[in-house]
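quick one, 177 residues, struct below
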Amino acid sequence: MTTRPVRAFVALGSNLSDPEAQVSLAFGELDTLPSTRLIAHSSLYRSAPWGYSDQPDFINAVAEIETRLEPGRLLEMLLDIEHRFGRVREFLNAPRVLDLDLLLYNGLIHHEHGLTLPHPRMHERAFVLLPLTEIAPECVIPGHGRAASHLAACAGQELQRLPQIRSTTETLLQAVG
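---
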């Protein structure tokens, strides 16, 4: 565990079992990780699948967290959340209930089996870049520069920003208030 908290970004995606709900619930799960707190999360975005196209569209988002967990331990905990949500890895780019990818960890450039930082190809994917720059407009991808500068190269990748959905608590407070 690190002594001081570091800033990290996690990509979230789902295309099975009410994907909007899966991603929204996963935001809460990130906030319950040990020595970690959710700082911000993007809007939800709908995107076409990558790699294997015979599947439903995805709901994607990015979360910013502050954590004292080391990158490897954080990744283990993200994989545990996926497993608890019912993630099954049938084949590459298969449909999934929840996908959590560690994108960035405090500007670290790192590669070991199972963990590469920054996340490979994140600078080529609008479904990562747009939500990331929504919550961190000045974000830099180590070795690639500002995240926002890569958006133009992703112009052909269509994303649809979904309308904000009020939580049950917000709706109840507004009705009472």
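Strands lie at 6-14, 36-41, 45-47, 58-67, 99-105, 110-112, 115-117, 140-141, 145-146, 159-161.
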